[in-house]
Amino acid sequence: MISPKKYHKTVKIPPNGFKSINEFFNHVFKDKEMIWMGQNTNHLNDHNEIKEAMIEFIKSNEYCKYPPPEGFPELQELILKDLGLKNGFESLITAGGTESLYLTMHSYIELGDSIITSDPGYLIIENFARRFGAKVTSVHIYNKECSYKLTPKLARDNIDNKTKIISLIDPLNPLGSSYTKDEIKEFAEIAEEKDLYLLHDVTYRDFAKKHYLAAKYAPERTLTIYSFSKICGMAGLRIGGIITVPEMMEPLKAVIINDLGTNALSQIGAIKALKTKKKWIKRVRERTYKNQKIIKKAVDEVEGTFIPVYPSNANMMAIDIYDTGVSPDDLTEYLLKRKIFVRQGSYTSRFYGNRYIRLSFSIPKEQVKIFAENFIDLMGFLRS
Ligand SMILES: Cc1ncc(COP(=O)(O)O)c(C=O)c1O
Q: Which residues form the Aminotransferase class I/classII large domain (predicted)?
C-alpha cells in the first residue's frame, strides 16, 4: 500500500495576472525597481566582506569540489558560537531554514502524530508536517488576550496524547511577537513533562530586542532552526542550519537530502558573515527598527487600520485593515502595480488572512517612505 504521507500536496494559487507562482516570483525578482517588502529579506547588507570572500572563493576554482556532507566544521562551530551553545550541541548545515524544517518533519513525525502551530504563522511548517502524516493543531492567536502569540497556556490547552512537536516561531512571522525568558522556560518544562519536542525557529532572532533559546532550558528536546537569509542578507544563497544535541541529530542525519554537501560558495559567505557580524549588526538592527516608526506614522493616519504587534521584534509586521473594508488582496495588488511588493494576509494565515497585509522593512529608509506615502494614498482610493 502507498503510504498516506505521499498524499498531502500543497496547492499554490498564482496572484492575479500570472500563470504560475514561479512566473510571479520571476517577475518581482527581475524588476530592479521593485521595493522588496514581501519576503522579510534584508537589503541593508552593503558591507563588502561577505561578497569579497565569495569572489575570492570563485577565483580559487575550489567550487569544483564537493564540500563535506554535514557542512564545513568551521561554519558548524561558528553557528554554535553565535548562539552561545558551545558545549554539548551539534549543528548541521542545510540549504536554508526551509530544509531544516523539512528534515525535522521527516525524521520526527510519524503517521498520526500531531503538531501544535499557530495561526497566523509560517504555513510552510504545517505543510511539511502534513506531508509526513501529521495532524496539525493550528491555534488561533490573532488577539490581544494572548499578545498575538502561542502562549504556554494555549499550548497546554491544545496538547493531546498524540502531540509530538510544539512549533515556536520566535520572533513570529508574520506578526513579530516574541517570547520572554519565563515563557521559554515554561515551554521547556512542558516539553519535559509531556514528553514532546520543541521546534524553535529562530530565523528572526537577531532583530529582537531580547531573545532566549529553548535549547538552553530543554537541550534534549529542542530542535533549533537557523537561517542566514535574514539578518545576514543572504536569502538567495540558500543557507542555514539545524542545531541540537548529538542523540537528536542522529535521526536528522539519517534523512539528509544534500548527501554531497550544501553549496560551498554559500558556506564561505556564511563563514565570513558570522566572523564579521559584530561590525555590521548594529547598523542593520537600528535601521530596521527605525523604519518601523515611519510605517507606524502612516498607519496612524489611516482611520480603521492598526499594527497588531508594535514595535515588532522581527523585520516584518502586519497591518490590520479589516475595519476599512479594503481587502488585503486588492491592496497588495495595487501596491504591486506601483512596484511595492508586500504579502496579503492569506500567505501566513488560513483564518485571518482577510484582515491584514504583511510587510518587511530591512530596506533603505527612502523606500520605506515611498511605501508609507503609497499606503496612505491607496487606502484613501480603495475605500472610496
Ligand atoms: C519562520 C521562518 N522560518 C524559516 C524560513 C526560511 O528561511 P530560509 O531562507 O533560511 O530557508 C522563513 C522564511 O521566510 C521563515 O519566515
A: 33-374
